UniProtKB/TrEMBL annotation:
PROSITE patterns attached to this UniProt entry: HTH_ARSR_2
SUPFAM superfamilies: Winged helix' DNA-binding domain
InterPro entries cross-referenced by the UniProt entry: ArsR-like_HTH, HTH_ArsR_DNA-bd_dom, WH-like_DNA-bd_sf, WH_DNA-bd_sf
Lineage start: Bacteria, Pseudomonadati, Pseudomonadota, Alphaproteobacteria, Rhodobacterales
Pfam families: HTH_20 (PF12840)
Domain of life: Bacteria
Protein name: Transcriptional regulator, ArsR family
Annotated ranges, domain HTH arsR-type: 1-91
Origin species: Rubellimicrobium mesophilum DSM 19309
């Protein structure tokens, strides 16, 4: 994984930050409106917003005296592509694999006995 993905997944690891991203799916929000949705201080929410901004998941823009937050959905594209790669692999049937190995080993034993 790239350092960018490490940063994105670290940002997504926190439930408060995931909740903030869900809120921003609806529309841009002022920092104070985001903070009012959580039972923590404005400073704590600001730290969460900073982590999300550093990961490129949100952008912040000052409009007058109000700082607005906007979701940056393209930032999840690389993480989504990385995770989608796991969906392309078929599930491994371990029982069938074990039977295959037993058959191959048994066949190898038969061939070795026939050769001697």
């Amino acid at each position: 994984m790239t350092p960018f993905l490490d940063t994105v997944f670290a940002a997504l690891a926190d439930p408060t930050r995931r909740a903030i991203l869900s809120m921003l799916l609806e529309d841009d929000m002022a920092v104070t409106d985001v903070a009012s949705a959580f039972p923590v201080s404005l400073a704590a929410v600001s730290k969460h917003l900073q982590v999300l901004a550093e990961a490129g998941l949100i952008s912040q823009e000052k409009r007058g005296r109000i700082t607005w937050c906007r979701l940056e959905p393209d930032a999840l594209r690389e993480a989504g592509a990385w995770m989608a790669g796991f969906g392309l692999m078929e599930a491994v049937d371990l029982d069938a694999f074990e039977r295959f190995l037993e058959e191959e080993l048994a066949e190898g034993d038969r061939e070795a006995k026939a050769a001697s």
